Amino acid sequence: MKEYTSDRIRNVVLVGHQSAGKTSLAEALLYNTGAINRLGRIEEKNTVSDWDEEERERGLSISTSLIPVEFEDYKINLLDTPGYTDFQGEVKSAIRVADSVLVVVDAVSGVEVGTQLAWEFAEAYQQPIIVTINKMDRENANFEQALDSLRENFPDYKFIPVMLPIGAEADFRGVVNLLTMKAYYDAGKDRADLPPELEEAAAAARLALVEAAAEADDALIEKYFAEGDLSFDEIRDGMRKAARDAYLKTVPVFVTSGTKNIGTIPLLEALIVYVAPPVDRRVQYIQPDGEKAFLMPPQEDSGPLAAYVFKTTTDRFVGTMTYFRIFSGSLSGDSRYYNVNRQQEERLGTLLILRGKEQISAPNNVLHAGDIGVVTKLANTRTGDTLTTKDNPIQITQPELPNPLYAVALVPRTQSDSAKLGQVLNSLVESDPTLRWRQDPDVKQTILEGMGDVHVQVAISRAEKLGVSVDTEMPRVPYKETVTATASATYRHKKQSGGAGQFGEVTLRVEPNTGNGFQFETEVVGGAISATFFPSIEKGIQQVLAEGILAGYPIVDVKAVVYDGKMHPVDSKDIAFQIAGRGAFKEAFTQAKPVLLEPVMDVQIIVPEPMMGDILSDLNTRRARVQGMDTEGTKSTIRAQVPLAEMMRYGNDLRSLTGGRGIYTMTFSHYETVPAHLAQNIIAQHKPVEEV
User: Fold this and answer.
1) Which of 558, 592, 626 is at the close of a domain?
2) 98-108 tens-digit pLDDT
3) Same structural domain, 154 and 27
4) Segment 22-42, tens digit of pLDDT
5) How far does the chain reach from its first CA to its final CA, in angstroms?
6) Does 288 lie in the same domain as 262?
7) In which domain, by residue range, is 412 found?
8) Stretch 59-70: mean pLDDT, rounded?
9) Exposed/middle/buried for 34, CB within 10 Å: 0-12, 13-18, 19+?
């Protein structure tokens, strides 16, 4: 691979719903540029993008692949992202570092939930969008219906076909280029005259194209009004301007079949024209004082260095692989740079260009502004960090990633696995910020959280490849215990064993303390208990708070007031009052109408409008309180508060109810009392364990 300067680089992220054909399309683009000599197929597990063992076993993309394509003295860095909604963190990070978003839409299914998610991410980062309607060779493929689906779902955008299909389904054999008004058959290398039956449709579509090009530029629209037409160069320049400006919301539409390699060369040509070079990028960063600012174009090698790390992976043989996008400045291998996030220097070795799993050394060990590359074995750099220089420490802003939705409890199989588990989990979480893990003291479990069951299972599989074997179980719900009334109790601890004895008597009151946690107070007068023993009493109570009384869950929002007691001049000591304080608190707690509290979540669910009734019915079985509903286009949004206990595996259920077309987000809201009949079951389940 030769060296490419910034003006000859294009960074494009492929996004879309699962099975829209992104990986097959990338394969066809590689084939047409001579990077590979035969088309790989997902079914044959031999595509360049899906090179990971896990991806080939599952038959779906689970991480972003870097696929550089060389075409007509340009390098197009394709970022092939997963379509499965569990891996939306990968999509967000890839969109952050691209300069344009190529949305791949299935010609049969039209817009699906993965399409909508990616579109929202592109809008969040003000990225220009291009669409290709793919899989036109499939049975029931319909270009117009797919186009209508886009217009219905994204009514604020203008969708302007640049290509029209020649035929459909098994008869799909080429595309019409509306700029040249020529037909491109098969991959689209050679031009031919238009089929007569498409001349009328092509003329009408070309008119819309000319109008869109004119609207992008004041001078062009004046000429269009005056003369009624534009030249080839003017149409191309107008559409280029429209496509590169996210604020104009003009989306060029192409048509392809990745698996049949039809319409792919015109798409390659379009990416060079319609995607802005990285020199034109405006880049948001964080200044040393914490304020946000922008690096304004042009972004050049001579500018301040800002290389943003958007992905890291850990390989048993290679070690850590760090993927970065150079937003400004240039990088040289075998040099030292400053990690502004960690405030540490890193030495970079050989700079690599990855094509799937193939490692290509960067020409002259240099990468220019705007390029995307990889370096191995960095000691301290993680996903989201910025490599820069110490004298001008620019920190690129990170994308806001979604909160985890699915959790499992991990149980190490051996003592050796237990010793290594924390280190391996830290490595996984540093590589993938949408993963989280923690030791939960409330439920006494090691919890791994991700975006869905597949996401978490992939992480566990990677942990096993790094030498840790674990079993999984359902996480316990982090209930809490509290009281709803006031009660008092007295407990005497007396122990005589021949020598010095133990004596302590405590009388205390337990009362609700809603929202204020645990408080310990004393009202003892007259020296019934020496002040030196009050810390001992509180220490005994604190032991009970952690282990619970009803069902083994932490006790919260309780006030304990010691107001009387007795002591012995010889036998009273610290341990005696710890035991007495603990016993008195337990007795008073059980008489103060104790209840279990459960976490309640704020849930937002987005589903196709016809499915809203089924979702509402299902929510009713989960003790949900619906807070509101909205419908926009073909999608409905439901907002509800639902107990966490009812949402533990909701992702699987929602996928089943909606055929994978529903998505949801979930954040903690508050704790509230568990209904009595449910609390009895939870307490009953705890008793046998407690007795053993």
Assistant:
1) 592
2) 999 999 999 99
3) yes
4) 999 999 999 999 999 999 998
5) 67
6) no
7) 406-476
8) 92
9) exposed
Token pair belonging to 208:
């819309």
Q: Which residue's entry shows tokens 């107001």?
A: 563
Check: CB of residue 160 under 8 Å from CB of residue 252. yes
Considering the domain architecture, whether residues 584 and 500 belong to the same structural domain is answered as: yes
Pairing state between β 129-134 and 100-106: parallel
Distance CA 404, CA 456 (A): 10
Q: What is the 3-state secondary structure (H, E, C) of 292-307?
A: EEEECCCCCCCCCCEE
Tens of pLDDT, residues 175-206: 999 999 999 999 999 899 999 999 999 999 99
589 with 549: CB under 8 angstroms?
yes
Nearest to 42 by CA among 76, 18, 11: 18
Q: Which two tokens stand for residue 449?
A: 């959280």
- Contact of 82 with 118, CB cutoff 8 Å: no
CB-based contacts of 240: which residues, under 8 Å, 6+ apart? 273, 274
CA–CA gap between residue 19 and residue 263 (Å, rounded): 19
Residues 18/84, Cβ–Cβ less than 8 Å:
yes
Q: Are residues 149 and 10 in the same domain?
A: yes
pLDDT at residue 61 tops 80: yes
Count of H-run helices and E-run strands, the chain: 16, 37
The set of residues, in sequence order, having a beta carbon less than 8 Å from that of 41 and lying 6+ positions away, is 24, 27, 47, 259
Q: How far apart are CA 260 and CA 588, in angstroms?
A: 76
Q: Quickly list H helices, 125-250.
A: 143-153, 199-215, 218-227, 232-244
Record the tokens describing residue 183, joined without a space.
């037909």
Contact by Cβ (8 Å): 304, 356? no
The torsion angles phi and psi of 599, rounded to 5 degrees, stand at -70, 135
Among residues 565, 592, 619, the one where a domain terminates is: 592
Residue type for position 550: L
pTM: 0.86
Residue type at 299 in one-letter notation: Q
Cis peptide before 298 (omega within 30 of 0): yes
Helix ranges (DSSP H) in 493-573: 534-547
Q: Judge if 523 and 646 occupy the same domain.
A: no
The DSSP code for 317 is T
